[in-house]
Design brief:
Elements: H1 3-14, H2 20-30, H3 38-46, H4 48-56, H5 64-69, E1 73-76, E2 81-84, E3 88-90, E4 93-102, H6 105-121, E5 126-129, H7 133-138
Parallel strand pairs: 4-5
Antiparallel strand pairs: 1-2, 2-4, 3-4
Length: 152
């Protein structure tokens, strides 16, 4: 993968516009970035039926191979999965971004609560989740933006 592709892919995942300084930093870090462990890749495969549908139907669709190449944290229950990106520093605050939450609502809420508790223990300030309005509300998040789509 080229450095440009890494920048575009990473920028798309994080939902950020990358400055030239950030891009240079990412290019250097990309060679040392931790990859998903074989156990994580196996776990992602187990939940592919839920995950792939979610990432393909998102605002910025992501191919399955890109997910496997992106460092993620996976939490799961018997019928549900929650995937988050590793902690980031945004405007001086420690932030965890939830990428995928899929499955049974009650289990996803339990997974979210576990993530929230762990995040608090580790000094994280914010958890962000971009998803369907009902999930955002049910999880107790404050709505920050709305994305509309009109097929023509």
């Amino acid at each position: 993968m080229t450095a440009s592709a890494i920048r575009l892919e990473l920028g798309a995942h994080l939902g950020q516009v990358l400055t030239p300084e950030m891009a240079a930093s990412i290019e250097q870090a990309a060679f040392f970035a931790p990859r998903n462990s074989p156990e994580t890749i196996e776990l992602l495969g187990k939940w592919r039926h839920l995950i792939e549908a979610t990432i393909q139907d998102s605002f910025i669709p992501v191919p399955w191979e890109s997910l496997l190449a992106t460092r993620v944290d996976v939490r799961c229950a018997s019928k549900s999965v929650l995937i988050s990106l590793p902690e980031q520093l945004v405007n001086g605050k420690r932030v965890i971004k939830i990428w995928v939450a899929a499955g049974a609502m009650d289990e996803v809420m339990d997974l979210l609560e576990a993530l929230k508790n762990q995040a608090k223990e580790n000094g994280v300030h914010i958890i962000e989740y971009a998803g369907r309005r009902g999930w955002v509300r049910a999880a107790g998040f404050n709505e920050q933006a709305v994305i509309g789509r009109k097929e023509i």
